[in-house]
Specification:
7 strands, 10% strand, 27 helices, 62% helix
Length: 458
């Protein structure tokens, strides 16, 4: 299900967009969304605070947006992190750049505003961003605030690495002490955490950067960023500490539905981390999500605890029959794997599977479906009933018996056809009429039940 985003253009025109993806990059979050005409919009956030948005037909190479989309941590538009970011606001206003910047000047510090200019270098012109950073640099240098001035030079070089202005000044003797300090992670934690976050984001495989970044995000209460970073880190490590932290964050910040959604995402994107599959199965069984349990254990072969196996039995005996049909090609292997040593349970579960398959598959295909069972030396009583059904299919003398077998497999419509055929062949036999009355009553078709009741009276 798509996540919808209400947008107001310059406080006037309203649009409903569909969120396609969220990208978390450095200290920003960017939502990519589309309108009904396939126009693409980008909504920019500084940390968790919405800034502004823009409709873009193409993305400038080397821009902040281009770097974010290429190197950021990406989540789908309906991912719980995406919906969490969007659900706190009913709508988003996209103002013209000069109006947004005028408003931003009242809400952000000069250092934050400098960051925001660099973030929006696709909306603003590169020259206007460089001009603003230059003015800020000169102002800080005049005021003797050399660290702030050096920080502006680093931003300037990021915006335009080829411009000698930023590079020459950054390497000048005046800023040599800060050049050395900016190599010290502990110093950055205290004096420039935003720069630390920026550097750490591109070096997540560096454990010292990674730990500093996590500590800073925890202090700032930015749980979405913590989840994104820890999720990304699973590519490099599956340390138990990381897994526990992710599960705790999910449990703390998401409701039951979104916890399930997040665990689904983690299990799907990290198939080599069995702990997520285990956690997801536990969540499904706790929620009594029987259909989901059947689908999940058919797709993922995981080791289960005795308690989970008992819960799985209940799911296979309770799940909607519609759940089984799309799993026709893989379900038999799953059932054999988990239940081959419990003949009575196996018989009940397979009976439900066959009931589902009869909606879409013919008897020959269903009989072939039993091949993996035979290869394991497993022969079930239900197969004899299928043999009888095959034998009775075109036998006019066995339509009553065939109808009873279809009832056993919860196929009332096929049973009705058989009983009607039996009525035509043996009009004096009241049994098929009684069967039809009962069937129509069970189906809630009282008119048909009354009509056949009249036939008995006559």
């Amino acid at each position: 299900m798509e996540t919808k985003v209400d947008v107001h253009l310059n406080n006037k025109q309203s649009l409903e967009l569909s969120a396609k993806r969220l990208v978390i990059y450095q200290y920003t979050k960017i939502i990519e969304a589309m309108d009904t005409n396939q126009n693409t919009y980008y909504l920019f956030f500084f940390k968790d605070n919405y800034l502004t948005g823009h409709k873009l037909d193409k993305i400038m190479m080397g821009s902040y947006l281009h770097k974010a989309l290429s190197n950021g941590i990406e989540f789908a538009g309906n991912h719980p992190i995406t919906t969490s970011l969007l659900e706190n606001r009913k709508s988003f206003i996209i103002n013209r750049p000069h109006l947004f910047l005028k408003k931003a000047e009242k809400s952000y510090s000069k250092q934050e505003l400098a960051f925001i200019y660099t973030i929006l270098d696709t909306i603003l012109t590169k020259e206007s961003v460089k001009k603003y950073l230059k003015e800020m640099f000169y102002q800080y240098r005049r005021d003797g605030k050399l660290q702030a001035a050096y920080k502006l030079l680093l931003m300037y070089v990021d915006v335009d690495p080829s411009d000698p202005f930023g590079n020459d000044l950054k390497n000048s003797l005046q800023f040599q002490s800060y050049k050395e300090k900016y190599k010290n992670k502990d110093w950055l934690v205290q004096y420039d955490p935003d720069y630390l976050e920026k550097k750490a984001f591109s070096q997540l495989d560096d454990s010292s950067f990674y730990k500093h970044l996590l500590s800073m995000l925890e202090q700032q209460g930015r749980y979405m960023d913590l989840l994104a970073i820890r999720t990304k880190m699973l590519q490099y490590t599956s340390h138990q500490e990381n897994l526990i932290a992710i599960k705790e964050l999910i449990a703390t910040h998401f409701d039951e539905k979104n916890q399930l959604n997040f665990l689904q995402y983690l299990a799907r994107t990290n198939p080599n981390v069995p702990e997520f599959a285990q956690a997801l199965l536990h969540a499904y069984t706790q929620a009594k999500a029987h259909d989901a349990v059947v689908k999940f254990v058919t797709e993922y072969r995981i080791n289960v605890t005795p308690a989970q196996k008992e819960a799985m039995k209940q799911s296979f005996l309770t799940a909607s029959l519609d759940t089984f049909t799309p799993l026709f090609d893989s379900l038999h292997h799953c059932i054999i794997h988990f239940f081959q040593d419990e003949k009575s349970i196996l018989e009940k579960i397979v009976t439900r599977c066959v009931s589902a398959f009869l909606q879409q598959y013919n008897l020959d295909s269903i009989k072939i479906w039993f091949t993996p069972f035979h290869e394991k030396g497993i022969h079930l009583a239900i197969e004899q009933k299928l043999d009888l059904m095959k034998q009775y299919e075109d036998d006019p003398d066995q339509q009553l018996a065939l109808g009873e077998l279809y009832l056993l497999f919860q196929q009332p419509e096929k049973s009705i056809e058989c009983f009607k055929w039996e009525m035509e062949l043996n009009p004096d036999n009241p049994i098929p009429v009684r069967k039809l009355i009962k069937l129509y009553q069970d189906l809630g078709n009282s008119e048909e039940a009354k009509a056949y009741q009249q036939l008995l009276v006559i």
